[in-house]
């Protein structure tokens, strides 16, 4: 049965287009989302008080949906902080430096270590965890600092973050917006992440070696910057034997978490909770060992620092997520049953209408999701717009009749590769600062490999839908 579209549907669609335009212009979207929520509430209820209250309530709804993700990231950052200050991170990666004897080994070694670390710690903390130790080794064997930054970006902010298989923050956002289980989006993303990762990293390495051979390579170094800046924090002295023991024990604990996920079939929130609980215990144990009598107070201080980071990162995400949650079940919860009879949510209704009036196919759907994901990443967050990618994927899959999980995963991959820290200069600052290179030069070097990877990944997605 065809649903008759109401003013709510058209207003919602207009605001989506407007949001895309704001992202293209690199303008903030919070005000637009707030106006959109208020407008939808006013049209639905014709009540000023309910519409105003709906703004706050939609934020509460979004925070409830995102709280697990915000908490796990905050806790991971807090734990990473104490590992850096105590020098345990240096001890953890030190044995791996012996394998980095050539520029090629340094590039792929830094990349793979960054990827594995980012799966557990997220890329920004992972950059700090390994950058200070591995960068000097890489430069010593002939890999330019800019080459090390490229590897950190593509493997960490690209491959690891776009899949996010351990912490599961990204698939949680897109899956919720698309009305799918987290596990479905994660499984669908595996071939896309592999294709995107392989092509972009190989292309980046080939371009780097070609330009170095031809003499056209530019290091993009920034005077006075670099990994030395990581040493500005006061270090906490630990006996070498204690550092070694903890450096062995911590990876073992996280490896046991991964094993438990497979054995106990833990996914989504359950898997995140296991990793988060382990990180909290590690944080407490290391802090008590390192700070002794000040351990109780320092534990709280590390957690506060982690929470500050988490809410700072997700501050721009909450308003836009609140708006896009209204496209599904949140609308009824906020404003009651004000949609037309037979409606399955604004986004689903738009998808059905699109299927009835516009000829769509797998190719058009895949290209549209890649473009949409890339556009949402232009704000340099990578996360603030993936709810939009999930909603658009739901819309197009309803029109096509299949491929919701693949389209959602494709939008997620495109959004995070563009905005999560590989192409947008202001999102590249962590890796660029640690390696002492210009974020604009780093973005320029990443541009061609990432675009090639996106094109290839889009083609693969066409056959998987």
Q: Which labels suit this protein?
A:
single chain; 465 residues; mainly alpha; 20 helices; globular
Could you explain the architecture of this structure?
The relative contact order is 0.16. The protein has 20 helices and no strands. The model is unreliable at 224-232 (pLDDT under 50). It has helices at residues 7-24, 30-45, 48-86, 88-93, 103-121, 123-140, 145-163, 169-178, 182-214, 240-263, 268-291, 295-314, 317-325, 330-335, 346-357, 362-376, 386-400, 404-419, 429-435, 439-464. Helix 2 packs antiparallel against helix 3. The radius of gyration is 23 Å and the shape is globular. With 465 residues, it is mostly helical. It has one domain. Helix content is 76%, strand content 0%.
DSSP, total strands: 0
Averaged pLDDT, please? 84
Report the order of strands and helices: HHHHHHHHHHHHHHHHHHHH
| Quaternary structure annotation | single chain
Estimated radius of gyration: 23 Å
Protein name: TRAP-type C4-dicarboxylate transport system permease large subunit
Keywords: Membrane, Transmembrane, Transmembrane helix
Transmembrane segments: 6-24, 31-60, 66-84, 104-121, 127-143, 150-168, 188-208, 245-264, 270-290, 302-326, 414-435, 447-464
